[in-house]
Amino acid sequence: MDTLPFSLPTFDPGWVWLVGAGPGDPGLLTLLAAHALGHADVVVYDALVDQGALALANPDAELVYAGKRGGKPSPKQPDITNSLIALALEGKKVLRLKGGDPFVFGRGAEEARALSQAGIPFRVVPGVTAGVGGLAYAGIPATTRDTNAAVTFVTGHASTGEVPDGIRWPELAKGSPVIVFYMALKHLPTIIERLIDGGRDPADSAAVVASAATPEQRVVTAPLKDLGEAVTREGIAPPAIVVVGRTVDFREHLDWWTPAPAAAPPSTAVRTVLDAEKTVARAG
Ligand code: SAH
Q1: Residue 238 and residue 180 share a domain
Q2: Residue 174 among the catalytic residues
Q3: Which among 46, 50, 101, 204 is annotated as catalytic?
């Protein structure tokens, strides 16, 4: 394969591409994400973006860290957004690289709205979200026909720093057969209590998947009522996804994951895609 059998959009100067990098494994980058990395003048990236993904950036690209991790000093959201606008107005090709999917608990919509209001042209490149792809790396499907006709994504952490108060816990607890929580470790005991008080079976299956799709991936499963204790005992740290529901039971048979050797060279298949991408870049 010397060239990709289809064309990818050109990354024009003055544009911002808002790109999802997936939950960890750089192999989960989309072709559009790899293409954008190869062409960007500046990459503004978040804390959860894997170094392996950044290694695909054009060597001349400027890499700007805009990470936010709970409790540590970090750039303010308006500063990040303003710098994206300023860089675009300078005529740069600006890649805003975010963990997972930019539109799932990632403030991508806020950034896109600011770009839109400032008249900056932008493109959104979806990514694999941790609550689906990260769980898949733990052998936990988001849905199966036997277990759930619905799945709910919930944040365990509102902008106030507290458990979001807009959630109707009894309805969530009784109405959603599978619930996937992002940013939920800090308030896990409260979340578990609210689910059980809201009518969820305390013996329902539950799991925490930390650093999913990275060599540090760790998974803990326990009945819902015991999950908090298990997480403390195992010393599980963020980032982590919490999942409640019977799809967790599939892990017993679907745990396919083994970590890739940390320093493994890119596989032939990856090289082929990247070489094809270079050919496209030369042609374009
Ligand atoms: N936009 C991201 C979510 C950003 S919010 C996405 O679509 O995945 C940050 C939260 O995402 C973390 O607190 C954690 O709950 C989850 N997360 C992101 N990457 C993760 C990973 N590799 N493993 C486990 N959880 C992850």
Answers
A1: yes
A2: no
A3: 46
Position 2 in a domain: no
Helices 108-117 and 77-89, packing angle to 10 deg:
40
Nearest CA to ligand 1 atom 24: 240
Q: Are 179 and 206 in contact (CB under 8 A)?
A: no
pTM: 0.92
- Rounded Cα distance between 32 and 25, Å, is 16
- What is the pairing mode between strands 42-45 and 62-65? parallel
Per the listing, tokens 């969820």 go with 200
- CA torsion sign for 248, 252, 257, 258 is positive
- Residue 115 structural domain: 16-129+263-283
Residues whose beta carbon lies within 6 Å of some atom of ligand 1: 23-24, 48, 98-101, 104-106, 129-130, 134, 182-183, 209-214, 238-241
Question: 52 with 157, same domain?
Answer: no
218-223 and 205-210 as β-strands: parallel, antiparallel, unpaired? antiparallel
Quote the pLDDT of residue 277. 59
In a domain, 198, yes or no: yes
Pair (52, 153) in one structural domain: no
Number of domains in the chain: 2
Side-chain half-sphere exposure of 262, counting CA atoms within 13 A = 4
Which strands make up the sheet holding 218-223, listed edge to edge?
151-155, 178-182, 240-244, 205-210, 218-223
Q: Specify whether 1 is catalytic.
A: no
Task: Chunk the chain into consecutive blocks of 10 residues (it has 284) and report each block's average pLDDT, rounded to whole numbers.
Answer: 83 98 97 97 96 95 84 77 97 98 96 98 98 98 97 94 93 98 97 98 98 96 98 98 98 89 56 57 47
